[in-house]
Design goal:
Layout (H helix, E strand, L loop, with lengths): L1 H16 L30 H9 L11 H11 L1 H4 L24 H10 L14 H13 L13 H6 L8 H5 L1
Helix pairs in contact: 1-2, 3-6, 5-6
The structure holds heme C (HEC).
Heme C binds next to helix 4, helix 5 and helix 6.
Function: Electron acceptor for MDH. Acts in methanol oxidation.
Subcellular location: Periplasm
InterPro entries: Cyt_c-like_dom, Cyt_c-like_dom_sf, Cyt_cL
Length: 177
């Protein structure tokens, strides 16, 4: 049972980190059924980021300069066609502001569940197309595209929240550099 061994690793890591974060539970965004990761691709299951996320619900790729280019590329390959280059929405809804059809997407555990298990219609499950690690990368870019008040960006650490500037489409970012 692959799932079992992942659970053992995750539990071990959770103990190591102490009780600061509860081990997250994952539920299908539409029907609320529990998700497990038996169907996940073999590759990318045991990266540091995946282990940390399964234990704490914290995505260490958020605002991590070392992976932002990869995060952007993953989003642009897998998501922007439906959600727009800036997450502003196309055939899929806007995902760059604080309004969510499914409020669980306000948390990274909820967002991960939406990617892994899908939602309705065109928003199919991603477990066959992205590794667990790539889902965390795509999520980091979705969060980077956030245009809302940084204080509502609960997925960031308090330090990151202080420094986070809401994303400005239309080349505003280039003007700064
Ligand atoms: C083929 C088109 C398509 C692709 C590709 C796609 N989505 Fe979606 N997505 C949709 C549609 C349509 C919905 C609305 C589904 C619903 O309301 O149940 C949606 C819903 C969502 C939601 C829920 C939004 C809310 O308001 O709660 C999130 C989050 C999301 N997508 C993220 C992503 C990410 C990240 C990717 C890339 C890994 C992606 N999607 C790829 C079409 C797509």
């Amino acid at each position: 049972m692959r799932h079992l061994s992942l659970a053992v690793i995750v539990t071990g890591l959770g103990l190591g980190l102490g009780a600061a974060f509860a081990q997250p539970q994952f539920y299908n965004t539409v029907d609320g059924s529990p998700l497990n990761f038996d169907d996940a691709m073999e590759e990318g299951r045991d990266t540091e980021a995946v282990k940390e996320f399964m234990a704490t619900g914290v995505n260490i790729y958020n605002e991590n300069p070392e992976v932002m280019a990869q995060a952007e590329e993953t989003y642009n390959t897998m998501c922007s066609g439906c959600h727009g280059h800036y997450g502003e929405g196309k055939i899929g809804p806007g995902i760059n502001d604080s309004y969510w059809t499914y409020p669980q997407n306000e948390t990274d555990v909820g967002l991960f569940s939406t990617l892994y298990g899908g939602a309705s219609g065109q928003m199919g499950p991603m477990w066959g197309s992205l590794t667990l690690d790539e889902m965390l990368l795509a999520m980091a870019w979705v969060r980077h595209l956030y245009t809302g008040d940084p204080q509502t960006a609960t997925w960031l650490t308090p330090e990151q929240r202080e420094n986070f500037a809401p994303f400005k489409p239309q080349g505003a970012e280039e003007d700064q550099s």
